[in-house]
Amino acid sequence: YWYGGAEMIAQKWPINKINMKHGAAYLSSDLPKRYGNVLERYYFSSKGVAVFVDSDVPMYVAIEPDIEICLEATYDKSNLVGPDYLYDTGKSTRLSYTVCVGADPNTVHQYMTRVDGGFIKRPTQLPDLRMMQDPIWSTWARYKSDINQSIVEEFANEIIDHNFTNSQLEIDDGYEENYGDFTFDESKFPNAKGMVSKLHDMGFRVTTWVTPFINLASKNYRLARNAGYLIPEDSDGTPAVLRWWNGRGSVVDFTNPQAAQWYRNYLETVKETYGLESFKFDAGETSYLPKLGLNFTFQREANPSEFTRLYAETAVQVGGGMMEMRSSWKMQEHNFYMRLMDKGSSWGGLRGFSTVIPTALTFSMLGYPYVLRDMIGGNAYVFGAANDNKPSRELYIRWIELSAFLPCMQFSISPWQYDDEVTNVAQYFVNLHRTVIYDELVRAANAYVSGASPMLVTPIWFHADLGDATAYTVDDEFLTGDLFLVAPILVEGATERDVYLPGSNIKWLDRMRPECKDRSMVGCVMNGGQWVRSYPVQLDQISWWERL
């Protein structure tokens, strides 16, 4: 069984289950049948074997489910590298890689991510802890881009009136006059600075949504074009114009130090002008580069993913430990929150609820412990378009329950849009997260930074017996830190599930059932290394167990 690799739209755990038998260039993307927003050239197996491929290899990866994973070095199969690139640089297509072998997967992964000289770096400090303790509230899934000052202020009032805590209010798409302005549209936000000040007085911090795109209509386009800050389409420096999900524009050339400094300084000015605390950084994948990749950028790069890294590096300098990032490449040493790609409001399939745990575990394996699992209930999309209907009540409740055990909770669709019962369930799990789960998350985060612990979202095989094939393949359970085992309901209509408790030498305490405060009660403490079959879990419950 193999782990690591990349985030996928249809995420699987282990990655043996992924169907990519026709293969794709190993570059970041947000498209189907391609590799995803976050990836690393790192794979390791249940037998304690790790493979790490060098960064400058033009890598192409195919996965035939349960048969083989094929790594290939080839320029020909990547449409992001020009045909003259190999000749101009003298690069070879040798598949250069390192193999490390250890006694078991825990040992080899610990070695590959060790603090002193690991192949995968660890962050040197903790992220913003208020985001880990209290919910993020975003305008996106509920309002999409139809926002203005009165809507944002009313949203904040609703949060306070329903007695919810917050880490910040995130003003997403729709606040700019033109994409790439990164400033508030005065016709929609007549007093944005006053609004932010009012939100501060209510106890909110405030962030806004930004991208690496400057649209043609933006007030910043001419300046960026004339200064050579945009990725060109050819050697004469003409900016490449591309279509992204919000129109036509060009991409900031982060290989140019002056362009990166301009972008960073501009966002710092935006922060100071309005009193913002940080930003949500979107996009950054190589699929939004010109077809000739980085052939004509300020600095030509052997790997187009270097653009993704440089974008994230610029972002973290202005966003700090409070920012969230959607795409990343070799940025594990920084302390920002790594966001899962947008999830749909569905139970399974592409981007569905069932992909949350496999994706969070994959992020952990790739060295991004501070996982932000996107909006509770998904983005209210149907077939890629905005949908006015909310996620189903049942799906929304199950999503709240799962989120309570991950590093962050993020709301947009609001509990009170349903009924009082849903609001009460949400308040219960927000309180559980901030008073119980948060302590274990912080302990695990400190341990991870020091090199002593595996991760905040941990696969259950971390506590399993060596060679336990069941633990290696369970894709709907995880450990919060290394203390709480979490087994949510992920199937529509289900009110029971089978729970696998790993580790034959471990005793697990049932924390879901109130009567188990008395540990002597029958069935409250169970030995590991076995299934608990047909375990009843009502709609307002989640199965979770404490390692004794």
Query: For the terminal residues, how far apart are their CA atoms?
Result: 28 Å
**What is Rg?**
23 Å
The proportion of residues forming helix, as a percent range, comes to 25-40%
Mean pLDDT rating = 93
Number of strands: 28
The shape is globular
Features:
Immunoglobulin-like; 548 residues; 28 strands; glycosidase; globular; alpha/beta
3D structure, described in words:
The structure is a single chain. The protein is of the alpha/beta class and 548 residues long. The strands form seven sheets. An eight-stranded parallel β-sheet has the order 17-16-15-14-10-9-8-20. Strands 21-22-23-28-25-26 form a six-stranded antiparallel β-sheet. A four-stranded antiparallel β-sheet has the order 1-3-4-7. Helix 6 links the parallel strand 9 and strand 10. Helix 8 (257-274) packs parallel to helix 9 (305-319) and helix 11 packs parallel to helix 12. It starts with a strand and ends with a strand.
Secondary-structure topology with pairs:
Layout lengths: L1 E5 L13 E6 L13 E7 L3 E5 L5 E6 L3 E6 L11 H5 L7 E5 L3 H8 L16 H5 L2 E3 L1 H4 L5 H13 L6 E4 L20 H10 L4 E5 L2 E3 L5 H6 L15 E3 L2 E5 L5 H18 L3 E4 L23 H15 L4 E2 L11 E3 L16 H10 L5 E2 L8 E2 L2 E2 L6 H11 L6 E2 L8 H31 L6 E2 L10 H5 L4 E3 L3 E4 L8 E6 L5 E4 L14 E3 L2 E7 L6 E5 L1
Helix pairs in contact: 8-9, 11-12
